[in-house]
From TrEMBL:
<protein>
    <recommendedName>
        <fullName>MazG-like nucleotide pyrophosphohydrolase family protein</fullName>
    </recommendedName>
</protein>
Amino acid sequence: MDIGSLQRLAWDNKVLKGYNTTDIPLEFCMLQEKTAAAFTAWRKGKELLGEELADVVLYVASIAEMTGLDLQYEVKAKVDRNSARSD
């Protein structure tokens, strides 16, 4: 699955289930909560780390959709910029 498809699937799921699709600050807070849950899973050696990291990716994809960003383009551009850096 490519990032663009993931972004659309995450968005479609939010719409279908009636989840937040308009409150961007709330979505960032939820992202922060999911990131903390991933850290806790890693720190405690839980087997849920993969699931928690997947939640983080889905929240990022949703924020990209809410703000009109093409996340696939943005990630590729960032990878290219990082590759071109000399440090």
